[in-house]
């Protein structure tokens, strides 16, 4: 499992830094005792983070990852950089009809299916460096114990009632059929392959008993209608209490807009009783006499996975989950899961009568689309978690791009061109450039931070925060600028001092923006603020004219620049950690510094002190070749028939060589199709439009096509002028010219295609 903490390096004698507890991170892997569990602490902020439990019948794609697990990881890591006692819990959701159905399709038991996909999910999240404190699952004795306890308390408190339901029953299989086990004719549009819950043709939601000529999906026999007794949740009786709680929590926890809207729409419509039990075999048994052959409804059972997974992490789980006064619960998910977390699950907790830790903040996302369409495992379209590592791009870049495109308020797009551009122009040219430029320049100082120079307006951390530039009229600034440009000596010192103060002011302002965004769980604006801070660092180096001349001729200025820049990089390591933990760790190694917090109050100070010796500089990011765009688009664009690859779960990734060949073929196909279209529209325009470097042969052939086309046109006009008079000789001559023209066009198209292919090959070789 990926570490939820930043790297903690061995202490060295060459370190010199602010050791104040508010500056250094309290909890890292270095100060955890073996077997120690993270528990709430009195008189401290305690943050409990969960992400929607991923279902086990498939591998998560990029949209699933950014929608829940990655977003939750970012906030949990941020919370730790504020020295808040934080626990991040997640795991796989494993019970229910979908698991049974998938297991039958794959010819395995439900438990075998769950074991397979739990392992796959864990591997995916570890590769993406998602740092759970515990990643568990719902198929555990603790899950059964806690879910049954909540169910029985709801029953004891009068919120459950028994009702009869008419369901389809397969006599051959001796079982009631859940919706997914039934197929038949749609009563709305007569489609003959509708499912028991929905028709794929007309899109209408259905009840299985409405199907015409229903058939059992397992044995194809015709089921009968039969009554079955179930336990219903009187959620309508719980609505007043749940609604009161939700409206209060939405304000106090600053719920996202779509979270509020979805919740309010459910209350407005009115909550109606629904069944909490199912006629299935795979699930938590219903602890009521006479219902031994039934299980709990998966959406009642699944959210209870949060406390049950915590219970598998620590026996003291109730300190987190039944401690509403001292714990704040943050939950992350896609918008389609909102109602279960703001209405159904809270209603069940309220109805149990126990003092549960209730939701404080819910962070939801819209949908991430793939290249203008949808992710599809069956059609091999889009990047799924188990394939992301195949292209050789490190997790930090993937995390950065997904978070930069996080669909916080509207759907967003994953696009390969944008993926490459952001790496090259943002990560490499902005963040990577700033850190590497400063750390490399430190070689001139033998990698040792200089003393604080006089006259530069700087002071060390224990002397107070750095001075900011004071507000002044624009005219006064312009006048000072003219004076500084005209004078030497002390005016230059004054100018650099003011530049430093202006830099500190801007840094503090951006830090404030970062903290404000992250406290509101607006992760994308937080990431933008972090990158803006790096960009301000680059601008500062430019304004200060950091180069060999500054080092040799104006050492005091240069010393000030390096003290400020190195300390900004240490601050950046804390801001980067939630988004790109591996990159943050690399920075800490290069600085030879311990993990630090986000500056208290958003105030920048010199916390790495004179005499501190940094480590060796290295590059944080690598450039991605723009030619990879087409290769990756083909590789993940459904170009390969998944049936030939062994289906959804056995599909193997293409080699780089195969992908390059496919990309080249796809590009060539598109270009030649364009050429053919142009050719049909008018002779030699195909070559003129597509081929960049014409050969003499191509130019000559274009001329022949044009001349022959003129001859054909004149011949046809001559025949037309005859006004129907038969002249077999002229007609035969015209037909021959047409034949010659078609032959010339065919030769032109073949030559054009060959030249296009050669140009593509030359581009690939560069």
Short structural summary:
This protein has 766 residues and is an alpha/beta fold. The chain contains 24 helices and 16 strands.
Report what the structure shows.
- This is MES1-methionyl-tRNA synthetase.
- It comes from Violaceomyces palustris.
- With 766 residues, the protein is an alpha/beta fold.
- 49% of the residues lie in helices and 10% in strands.
Decide which structural class fits the backbone.
Answer: alpha/beta
Rounded to the nearest angstrom, the distance between the terminal CA atoms is: 40 Å
Low-pLDDT parts are 487-491, 640-653, 675-689
The count of helical stretches stands at 24
Name the beta content range.
Answer: 5-15%
Mean pLDDT: 87
Rg on CA atoms, Å: 34 Å
Note the main attributes of this structure.
single chain; 766 residues; alpha/beta; five-stranded parallel β-sheet; four-stranded antiparallel β-sheet; 49% helix; MES1-methionyl-tRNA synthetase
What's the arrangement of secondary structure elements?
Layout: E1 46-51, H1 62-81, E2 85-92, H2 97-106, H3 110-127, E3 134-137, H4 141-156, E4 160-170, E5 175-176, E6 182-185, E7 194-195, E8 212-216, E9 224-233, H5 235-252, H6 257-269, E10 274-275, E11 277-278, E12 295-296, H7 298-301, H8 305-313, H9 318-321, E13 328-334, H10 338-352, E14 359-365, E15 368-370, H11 395-404, E16 412-414, H12 416-441, H13 474-486, H14 490-519, H15 523-543, H16 548-553, H17 555-576, H18 581-591, H19 628-635, H20 647-650, H21 656-682, H22 685-690, H23 696-721, H24 728-765
Parallel strand pairs: 1-2, 1-13, 2-3, 13-14, 15-16
Antiparallel strand pairs: 4-5, 4-9, 6-7, 6-8, 9-10, 11-12
